[in-house]
Amino acid sequence: MVFLLTGSDCQFHIFREDSNSNSYQEINPEEYFPEFYKCTDIVTWIEIYYLNSKKERLTVFGTETGYVRLCRVCTKTNAIFLNHSTNFISYVSHVKIYPQNKIIRKPTFVKASKYQSDQANGNEEKLILNVIIANTSVPSVFFGDCLNCGMDNYKTLRRCDPVSVTSCIEVADIDFDGCDEIVLGNSRQELLLYKFNNNEEEWRIMETKNVVSPIFRIKYVDVTADGVKELVVFTMKGLYIFQHDAEYIQKKLEEKVHKLYSS
């Protein structure tokens, strides 16, 4: 386990625990993270996603000048398989990597058949990773299947107001249809919920919610420990927690149980 930090010196700093001295020592970042080479700007966000049983990783980082780099790296040899970059001209406020296909593990007490095991392994091989980049001036951008397409397959997330500053991103299946939605928070005190329109092949704003102060961060977590996640919104003046409607949750649960028994 290491701490990965960035500073105003435009450098990456890695601190690893030294068990002998009970302290943390700084190590050379290029020895372990070759994708961080020759960065000339202050890095504002780093996102890392490990795949293939941690044999590889996808790293994306953005800087205060809008520069974004995406790399696929072998963790054993430090070889860079994929190296793409672009520039958004303005401060990168958030980077998000997420898998398009959810891999839901069957509980250990349920014995899986050989077919189900093969199917699970196939899902692992067909991993699709998407990346969302938010910046402070131009609209946020969605990059699809970055492992195969790099940064060539992209869609723009249109805004309601051209002068708003997007500050944060969260990805969650808000309506329980099995497909993730994108939630953006901005300086105009708005939560924007985007859903992908398959017919038009673009992301459209499905819903907008307002709070009373600019939004800093959004997290979709189960804070009440009832098995259903809530949307937690951190703002300049406090914390908001949006819960799902109980009747809607009950309806969705009954639908899924019915499908489970009828299959």
Automatic annotation (TrEMBL):
Any GO BP annotation: actin filament organization
InterPro entries: Integrin_alpha_N, Kptn
A GO molecular function held by the record: actin filament binding
Domain of life, source organism: Eukaryota
Entry GO terms, CC: actin cytoskeleton; lamellipodium
PANTHER family registered for this protein in UniProt: KICSTOR COMPLEX PROTEIN KAPTIN (PTHR15435:SF2)
Protein name as catalogued: Uncharacterized protein
